[in-house]
Predict the 3D structure of the following.
Amino acid sequence: MERVSEPLRILQMVTVRWYNACAEYAINLSAGLAARGHRVVVAGFADSPPLVEARRRGLQVLDAYDFRPGPIHLPITIHRFGRYLRQSRFDLINVHRADDHVAAALALGGQGPPLVRTRGDVRPPRRHLLNRWLYERLTAAHVLAAEFMRPRFYAGFRIGAERVVTIRPGLDVEAFRSGPGNRWNVRDALGLPRGARIVGVIGRLAEAKGHLVALEAFSRLAGRFPDARLVIAGAPEGLTPALLWERAQHLGIERLVKLLPRQDDIRPLMSALDVGLIASVSSEAICRVALEYQALGVPVVGSDLNSIPEMVVHGKTGLIVPPGDPTAMAQAIERLFLEPQLAERLGAAGPTQVRENYDLPSMLEQTEALYRRLVRDRRLNGGPVIE
């Protein structure tokens, strides 16, 4: 009989090449479960950003298996991985990417511990016969990071409702709010006027994040609000600072735009903003920056896209606009400029929204409860037991 306090042996598979919101979800989950006493191993690509972060947080990592080589080497890798899983006697395997899902299912061969698929990306699963077998028969449970995925991605599968669970990403609001610093000192350090109306776009410089739409929207405000500034911070990924600067010059707003590199700690910059802008035109299965803006009390203008309207409540913590619509975006920002009481009310409601719906302890408790239920059910069906 399993004791309530008995630790589980858990493998988290996170073969992500960069540190995106999906990786953040997996690493936060792994660190939180380890802090609760579970034995967690994080698997991924050698020296990938997720594994670097896992090591930084003191987690055990596994980087011996790379499923990327061609079909000649893949069967050998799967065989070796299956042998490792049998020897390690994990109680549960949680995969966070499609490649991990297939690799783990093949390695397990329909035997062993429960397999859980956490979905933190916007690519819909294909509904061919083999995928149906994988999703419907070989996977014990599916965890959704946002509710929009349920009707869009899973309606075509025959999976019981109890096996599709929404567990939203978690953020520790108090810890996140503990280190932003003084907003005026931050503005001084960045060379931004203290009295400026500052709009920020924070995130990787990728087409999906809508930086070009943000520039277009801001250009429509510049004439009416000469004291406004647009700050863009992030690492290049498809877009470059030079391209964004060229676009700002073309729009005649280059003197009002400040481009910054990726920030190791984004809290000081966020604390200096009057509006947090999420201009995304695709992606956003998990919109981490939406939680961070709200946790710091920054009102949000965000695209009506995937998880964003779940995270940012229109009229309560921000304003939601159609994606790719610079006119609507500019109007929403202008409204916050002209109605400071509205902006203050939206910002003030942000921390409560995150605490009530995206609390980190709640995420961990829900996940642990799911894991324990799956392990218990597997044991009752003759599966492995913890010694």
Summary: The chain has a mean pLDDT of 93. The longest strand covers residues 197-202. The chain is about 45% helix and 15% strand.
